[in-house]
Amino acid sequence: MNKWKVLFLGLLAIVVLGIISILVLVFTGNTDMKKPMPTEHKGNEFSISTKPQDFENLANKFIFDATEGSKVQVEMAIEDDVKITSNVDALGVNIPITLDFDPEIDEHGNLLLHQTNVSVGKLNIPAQTALKLVRDSADLPDFLTIQPSEKTAYIDLTAIDIPLGDLAEGHIKAKTFDLKNDNIELQLIIPQN
Prior knowledge:
By secondary structure, the protein is α+β, with helices and mostly antiparallel strands. The chain has one domain (41-65, 73-190). Helices cover 26% and strands 37% of the residues. The protein is built from 3 helices and 10 strands; from the N terminus they run H-E-H-E-E-E-E-H-E-E-E-E-E. The chain has helices at residues 3-27, 52-66, 127-137, and strands at 44-50, 75-78, 82-90, 93-105, 111-120, 144-147, 152-155, 162-163, 169-178, 183-190. The strands form 2 sheets. Strands 2-3-4-5-7-6 form a 6-stranded antiparallel β-sheet. The chain is elongated and about 80 Å long. The chain starts with a helix and ends with a strand.
């Protein structure tokens, strides 16, 4: 057989396997990540008022610490909405993903993010598929879960341990998350001894 024909058939097989791999990644794993049960922390509560940029810096520090060593990094940006960015490797190509969300505070002081927009490189794919890609390809921190069927992400603020020194860890919950007026109010809970 001609060597060019063999090379062509080999290349064709690689492309077909790549397409099958992407389709399997996109259409499998239909289950949502389980939302964690929020933890109720007792202690002294202090109100902290902050700006979106400061919350973004804090969130990215906790995300970075929780995913250190991961090949795929997840970042958060706070603007008029909440943006979560990541990337997916497909056939050796790094594809950036940006997910836009409207934040809402649940009854436990955690953030429920409702997806409003999605950008996956130059591809036009459904929102649920983009959420599945991020869910399946990134090492997400334990406090961030994604529910593709609901087009939401959930940030369990109460699960984040805030170091307060050698002896204690505090916790936070959201009271106000008003991005239009640059107003974020958090409740810091310091345990009693």
